[in-house]
Amino acid sequence: MSMPNSAVLARAITTSRSNALRDYLTLMKPGVMLLVLVTTAASMWVALGEAPHPWTLFLTLVGTLLAGGSAATLNHVLDRDMDAAMPRTSQRPIAAGRIRPGQATVFAVILGVMSFALLYTQVNPLAAYLAVGGIAFYVLVYTAWLKRRTPQNIVIGGAAGAVGPLIGWAAATGRLEVAAVVLFLIVFFWTPPHFWALAVALRDEYARARVPMLPVVAGVEATLRQVYFYTWVTVGITLAMLPLGQLGWAYALVAVVLGARYLRLTRGLLRQTTEGRARALYGYSIVYLFGVFGAMVLDVTLHQVVNALLGRM
User: Fold this and answer.
1) pLDDT for residue 154
2) Which residues of the chain have pLDDT under 50?
3) CB-based contact 260:298 (threshold 8 Å)
4) Are 63 and 40 in contact (CB under 8 A)?
5) What whole-number distance in Å separates Cα of residue 237 and Cα of residue 210?
6) Which stretches within the chain are classed as H helix?
7) What is the pLDDT at residue 167?
8) How many angstroms separate the CA atoms of 227 and 223, rounded?
9) What confidence score (pLDDT) does residue 1 get?
10) Contacts of 29 (CB under 8 A, 6+ apart)
């Protein structure tokens, strides 16, 4: 039997490294982090009333990405038994045995330290402390304490995912204000209906994994009533930005249109519950959050353009 030649060995090594890199990126939950980064960036636009300095924006987003990746990786470590029991998550790197828990923990610690150092030295201390606080809340309060103990886990734990706007506001201004709290609350109240829509579709998997998600404990109908209530609260809070004077008509128009669609889909799922409708609502909730925070950036940009044109007249 002939030995593999050098080209084959090199290809195998390259493939192995590529797969390992992909697994470590998976631990950071890039899809979730994209939402966090969008809310962080939009918050900076709103806080300043103009586009943030590109370098400050870049450093803030990198620091936030590292913090979120640290928290997500530790979530993988602590939830590895649960992930292995659910078909949707059984092929995650730790659950499938491709990365050892100890390796992932070291990776998470490195990411967390890098995040804090970067934000503290290059942005400001408040942004750094908020990022570390987000890691601690997500890992210790949500993952380690609430997730396996109460069906209200996602309601309280949603605070961790909502920290992005606070980091962005602090990075832009060095302080927190009422409008920053409102942006935090938008994401905070958006989280339960977003996650519960998916939990309705996956309730059998959560039941097998013995995770006390609301559809498993309280039933689908009770869960969907909560989804409808939280959706109303979310849409209402998005409009609270208007009396604060931070945003104008362009944002209001988009927020109302997107919110009306969100409420229609939620009401439709409550009237006729199917897995397909639940997944569709889950998908739209992501579009909704992207759209609302994107509209904030659009509104600020349009305001800048209008002011520039008026200044030339």
Assistant:
1) 81
2) 1-3, 9, 12
3) no
4) no
5) 34
6) 6-27, 30-48, 54-78, 80-85, 101-122, 125-136, 153-161, 163-173, 178-201, 203-208, 214-218, 220-239, 249-271, 275-312
7) 98
8) 6
9) 43
10) 68, 69, 72, 75
